[in-house]
């Protein structure tokens, strides 16, 4: 029996078809545990859709094969009750299903239950990182109006990225890979810019802009808030103090230098040196 996950189709929202992997490793119900273990060693994956005549009929995970004979057929131990997604499913709905069910991946099928791809929790995270919503722009608008006692408008227009003044000193290389992928697929959200008479201040979307620059893209879609020179912004002063004048001033940090990774490495090193007192 299938438990098929479905969700409302929402315009302008990324869909499963935009993020799924179409080249999927599968096993046949006639394969053995030995065959599946070989595939795990070769691919590094911990489970596979079970496919017969292009139709998904089950799923086999490493846990299913524990303490099973190497000659046991996959059809005898595979899970037949599973969650699957369809290509038009909204990624927000996929996120809910994956995190509430505890699944790490979902096979993607069409109306005939033919395998079309696979969607993973990593794809979900990638689809949500640095996602600009109208609510974020609205919050910025209301904040500017409250602080400076003015009325501001929000317009949608294309901006020249080489004219942007950054307000963020660093971006991370691993996130850039995700933004580059999205730009190539046409999935990037608009950036957020404050426009003054003589400058364009980048408020949100630094990873997207640097990714676009790497791809040779000269202009980007943006939510733009026009302001006069008489409105003095704290972010302008902070950026100037940090030496941020052009996009070239932004540092690209390798994933290994991410603050969370550094803290984890330091704790691990202290533990190995006997400096961590677990009794405390």
Automatic annotation (TrEMBL):
Keywords: Amino-acid biosynthesis, CBS domain, Methionine biosynthesis. One of its GO terms (biological process) is methionine biosynthetic process. It comes from the Archaea. InterPro entries: CBS_dom, CBS_dom_sf, Diverse_CBS-Domain, ParB/Sulfiredoxin_sf, ParB_N, UCP004699_CBS/ParB. It comes from Candidatus Methanoperedens nitratireducens. This is CBS domain-containing protein. The lineage of its organism: Archaea, Methanobacteriati, Methanobacteriota, Stenosarchaea group, Methanomicrobia. Gene3D superfamilies: CBS-domain (3.10.580.10), Conserved hypothetical protein from pyrococcus furiosus pfu- 392566-001, ParB domain (3.90.1530.10). PANTHER family: CBS DOMAIN-CONTAINING PROTEIN, CBS DOMAIN-CONTAINING PROTEIN CBSX3, MITOCHONDRIAL. Residues 20-75, 78-137 form the CBS domain.
């Amino acid at each position: 029996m299938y438990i098929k996950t479905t969700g409302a189709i929402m315009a302008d929202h990324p869909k499963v078809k935009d993020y799924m992997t179409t080249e999927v490793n599968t096993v046949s119900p006639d394969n053995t545990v030995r065959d599946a273990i070989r595939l795990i060693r070769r691919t590094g994956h911990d489970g596979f859709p079970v496919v017969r005549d292009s139709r998904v009929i089950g799923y086999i995970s490493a846990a299913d094969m524990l303490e099973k004979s190497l000659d046991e057929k996959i059809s005898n131990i595979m899970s037949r009750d599973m969650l699957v997604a369809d290509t038009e499913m909204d990624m927000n709905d996929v996120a809910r299903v994956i995190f509430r069910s505890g699944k790490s991946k979902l096979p993607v099928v069409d109306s005939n239950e033919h395998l079309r791809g696979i969607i993973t929790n990593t794809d979900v995270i990638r689809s949500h990182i640095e996602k600009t919503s109208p609510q974020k722009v609205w919050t910025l608008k209301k904040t500017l109006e409250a602080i400076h006692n003015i009325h501001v408008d929000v317009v949608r227009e294309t901006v020249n990225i080489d004219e942007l003044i950054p307000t963020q000193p660093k971006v991370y290389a691993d996130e850039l890979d995700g933004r580059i992928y999205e730009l190539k697929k046409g999935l990037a959200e608009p950036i957020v810019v404050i426009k003054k008479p003589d400058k364009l201040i980048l408020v949100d979307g630094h990873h997207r802009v640097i990714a676009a620059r790497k791809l040779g893209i000269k202009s980007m879609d943006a939510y733009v808030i026009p302001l006069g020179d008489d409105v003095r912004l704290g972010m302008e002063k902070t950026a100037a103090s940090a030496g941020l004048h052009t996009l070239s001033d932004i540092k690209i940090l390798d994933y290994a230098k991410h603050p969370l990774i550094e803290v984890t490495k330091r704790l691990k090193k202290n533990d190995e040196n006997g400096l961590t007192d677990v009794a405390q």
